[in-house]
Amino acid sequence: xxxxxxxxxxxxxxxxxxxxxxxxxxxxxxxxxxxxxxxxxxxxxxxxxxxxxxxxxxxxxxxxxxxxxxxxxxxxxxxxxxxxxxxxxxxxxxxxxxxxxxxxxxxxxxxxxxxxxxxxxxxxxxxxxxxxxxxxxxxxxxxxxxxxxxxxxxxxxxxxxxxxxxxxxxxxxxxxxxxxxxxxxxxxxxxxxxxxxxxxxxxxxxxxxxxxxxxxxxxxxxxxxxxxxxxxxxxxxxxxxxxxxxxxxxxxxxxxxxxxxxxxxxxxxxxxxxxxxxxxxxxxxxxxxxxxxxxxxxxxxxxxxxxxxxxxxxxxxxxxxxxxxxxxxxxxxxxxxxxxxxxxxxxxxxxxxxxxxxxxxxxxxxxxxxxxxxxxxxxxxxxxxxxxxxxxxxxxxxxxxxxxxxxxxxxxxxxxxxxxxxxxxxxxxxxxxxxxxxxxxxxxxxxxxxxxxxxxxxxxxxxxxxxxxxxxxxxxxxxxxxxxxxxxxxxxxxxxxxxxxxxxxxxxxxxx
Length: 512
Description:
This protein is an alpha/beta fold. The chain contains 15 helices and 27 strands.
């Protein structure tokens, strides 16, 4: 039996279609229902569906009045505020193409993106790093906020296959890749509502992430709004220790976060009394069995995981109606066609390792990488899109994750290319060679570490400071380790997987 699982055809996307119109379709019927609550410790900022849609469509009018037109790319350099999702949907509403980016990126990292992106405008948040981009319209946050009160723009309806937005993902070549998605991508997420969330219009879904993280943007905002539910987002500065209180106080029925957040909440050791919570959601990286068990004991609820990527969001998951088998990622969601394939794209036998692949016709799959046709084509084998992640599939369709088939790292839910980090740090004074990988520092906790050679030991504090100037925080090594030589194969290629044991050896206790 081959490792191929077909969950039936996905629901066809309507045409004409607009992603923003779909997300806010419930606003006319329930204008007074709370769409979003931004949760502080002493108060909550609430947005009704009517207020939210008015702000989105007013902002869309304002963007057009700035001289932007359909197809223009709009680089989003905004912080962790409600202005982020408002501006994002405003762009899509009138066929501008938003490009959300992490506020942690440095000016040099943004400049590298902008060179290939050629944006027509930048949405600039206060204090958010951005290089000077000659000829590019800059719209600051105060002006964006003023646009909310303008008359509403009409939704631009059209082919669901047309470009809607672009997100960046760390490339194996070391250069961030611009992933282009169609308007239909939001329609495809309906398969996640049943196959992962168990999401209904009555839910109050709290996401622990920031507004400007794509995991929050999709799971925490777009999906709840598209079914008429309420999204709950902690205000900026709220730490993990306060999340259980906010969940209880605001009656969260579903909680979503990266595994590290669950670990930090559980680390306090306090009882978690969450009477309205039905279950939790996790994505970004594999959650350890110990966290699952500790959460279950502390709350009496399960955590359902999902697997996906920037190119296709999530498509494998456990759910309330179909939990993942022990140790597995889960099964293909309804409407998905998934296989484990060999290097030629042929499904392997059940139980055999191979590359996790999804049907190239999946409605949630990207249009391609902008300006990288060859790299786009390289991800396909026949009828399949190859994820680059290894796994096995059992006869029931449950997939077990076996790791990456390359050196990509996972930093708190972000995929990071070691090449990108190495290129950014290779010319630091005193370093002769450098190699980077992520290492497990304790159970279910991984950090990026840089291994370097030099003529003499270097000051680690200075190296860490230099990394902070050049790289977004989630890309920065948390430690530097000087070694005699970098491990290489007979052809001279760096063997990054041989670096982690060097860290373990250097950090063993005196009895290790």
